[in-house]
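Progress note, project year one: complex with nicotinamide-adenine-dinucleotide.
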Amino acid sequence: MSGVCVGMVALVTGAASGIGRATAVALAREGAAVLIADLQREAGAAAAAAINAGGGRAAFVEADITRDAEAMVAAAVAQYGQLDILINNAGIFYEADFLATPFAQWRRAVDVIYFGTYHVARAATQEMVRRGAGGRIVNISSVNAFLGAPRSSHYNSAKGAVDQLTRCLAVELAPHGILVNGVAPGFVDTPMAIIDGVSEHETPDFKAFYVERRRIPLARPARPEEIAEAVVFLASSRCTYLTGHTIVVDGGLTATF
Ligand SMILES: NC(=O)c1ccc[n+]([C@@H]2O[C@H](COP(=O)([O-])OP(=O)(O)OC[C@H]3O[C@@H](n4cnc5c(N)ncnc54)[C@H](O)[C@@H]3O)[C@@H](O)[C@H]2O)c1
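Model obtained:
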């Protein structure tokens, strides 16, 4: 197989669905062997089976990024012998009014998005440094990392912290040949956009403001595959001099006002 990830092994968290799944498919297409780690057993196994059926190499491990970081990395090494790429993608979103939400409920987003990213990055880095062959880490951020929004202080601040982790790890891990970058999507059509059973991208308000008035200059949300393209570049052997940066993939959303 030819491709920019031939001979590489990737761990993709949250790859049973959405952006993670599209990224796993794209990495496998480029020649990587992919370990899908997710809480969702059936969807995760189905994602791996679909990749294998298409001629790629993938396996699934049921795992929680807040508790099972070492186990995920060990599973990748047990399955494929090494770990070259980590895609820190798993995440959650819910609305939380700042005044009304109890601390434990607010903090859950930080536990998953920020500490989960930290735990898996740390476990993966330990393995990459031990092996001594470098590596690539891509943290999935969001445009929310650098924008304010109501009922989103938990999510936005956790994503902001992820961006800062990306910069700091890029600096600290450069001597080990580990490149650390991020991708910050805008609106993406995935199950995460479904709130109370309705996709926020299908509401009249979204269509009027973001599409018809071109608040998103490209006038539509992204498909998960369009986010995966940027992720795969950062994870690939083509990416050799880019580190400590988070690429915004938002159809122009944050380029305008
Ligand atoms: N959809 C969007 O509009 C959008 C925009 C910006 C950023 N993002 C980010 O992209 C990433 C992927 O989101 P998505 O839109 O594909 O959502 P999604 O809900 O389709 O997928 C998220 C996946 O993460 C898994 N997951 C959640 N918590 C986990 C945990 N503790 N351990 C392991 N797996 C866990 C879920 O089971 C799910 O399969 C997230 O980090 C999200 O914050 C999404």
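The pocket of nicotinamide-adenine-dinucleotide is lined by residues 13-14, 16-20, 38-40, 64-66, 89-93, 112, 116, 140, 142, 185, 187-188, 190-193 (CB under 6 Å).
Helices lie at 18-29, 41-53, 69-80, 103-131, 153-173, 204-212, 224-235.
No further modelling is planned for this target in the current period.
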